[in-house]
Amino acid sequence: MKEIEGGICAVAGVSAYGVKEGKYGLAVILAEGPAAGMFTRNKIVAAPVVLTKGLLETRPRLSAVIVNSGNANAFTGEEGLKDARAMGRELAETLDLDPESVGVASTGVIGHRLDLSRIKGQLPGVLKGLEASPAGSLAAAKAIMTTDTFQKEVAVELKSGIRIGGIAKGSGMIEPNMGTMLSFVYTDADVPADVLEAALREATALSFNMVVVDGDTSTNDMVLLTATGKSGVKPCMETLDEFREGLTYVLTTLAKMVAGDGEGATKLIEARVKGAKTAEDAKLAAKAIVRSPLVKTAVFGKDPNWGRVIAAVGYSGAELDPEKVSLSFAGGAEEVTLVESGKVSGSSGSLESLKKVMESEEIIITVDLGLGEEAATAWGCDFSYDYVRINAEYTT
After folding, report:
1. 180 is catalytic
2. Is the dihedral of CA 99, 105, 110, 114 positive or negative?
3. Among 67, 237, 272, 287, which residue has the fewest nearby CB atoms (within 10 Å)?
4. CA 366 from chain center: how many Å?
5. What are the pLDDT digits (tens) for 324-343?
6. C-beta atoms surrounding 59 within 10 Å
7. What is 2-260's CATH number, 2.40.50.140, 2.40.128.20, 3.60.70.12, 3.90.1640.10?
8. Distance from C-alpha of 223 to C-alpha of 257, rounded to nearest angstrom
9. Is the pTM of this model over 0.85?
10. Separation CA 259–CA 214 (nearest Å)
11. C-alpha 87 chain-centroid distance
12. Which of 76, 146, 147, 180 is catalytic?
């Protein structure tokens, strides 16, 4: 497997483009084939999620996706659902597509009606710009951004020749019970919808579901995976494993981009938990570390207050024995062990080494529970002064 240029447009059969006018963007992605999706588990479900989830449940196939940024079209009732349908229908009628094959996604402020006139006004420019090129993917990735500071895209080519590419947006209101944020992923593998769904569910659990920026689950979370089949490669037992591995790599890469671009973030935190009795215990402990406001603020302040990690693991719900827990921090070329099998390092050099680690832009926290063989990794970011500023001024 190797990374390649081009984002989603590295995949044969995909064309895309997008425009951004201030806070308001619009993107269109054209790609025909079987499709699967993962959606928010927030009980307040945005209208485009209701619509797109319903389409895939009826017929798991897409020919296009239309995405707007700046307005979430969430908590907008029946009128919001009508607006989401109108948005998809506008694209379908313009391109002579089946409206039931057009996925719709939105992101932005909750509780406001869509300005359909703005979307209709932007659509001709988007359609004119549609192209199967790296520029098309990049334009679409930029158009769906809200508080993101950079576009998020990645593509890989597998040994079998299959390509997988994805784009995502996400910076705040992020802790999934499903894939958080918006992400649109494509492959040229010849894969049926049921296989796509199983692979997407598995890859999402290992990637997007392990990201925490602020502990809030969005109303609009959506991850869509479409297979164009243009490579002609039908994954067999061996290549299906490779396909799953490639999909997990793409989603994990996007997930880490989201974590590193958390609102106001200055550092990426990676929490690795091993030695857990169960997989769920490992997941609980890893996510508790990257969710903890006290861990996040310590990382931002470069404060070597490692006890906050121990506390987070302790309340995570994971089974543990304090006398078996080990803890280490790593960053850059520095790595320091602070606790080993329940014993705290008495070395003054450990604290000095930890201070150097805390200067790094990426910090890896490793906890060994010493109880079993299960492991999990989660990603998050620090809490900075800018996080408060961005969210205090989100609509103003």
Report:
1. yes
2. negative
3. 237
4. 22
5. 999 999 998 889 999 999 99
6. 13
7. 3.60.70.12
8. 15
9. yes
10. 10
11. 24
12. 180
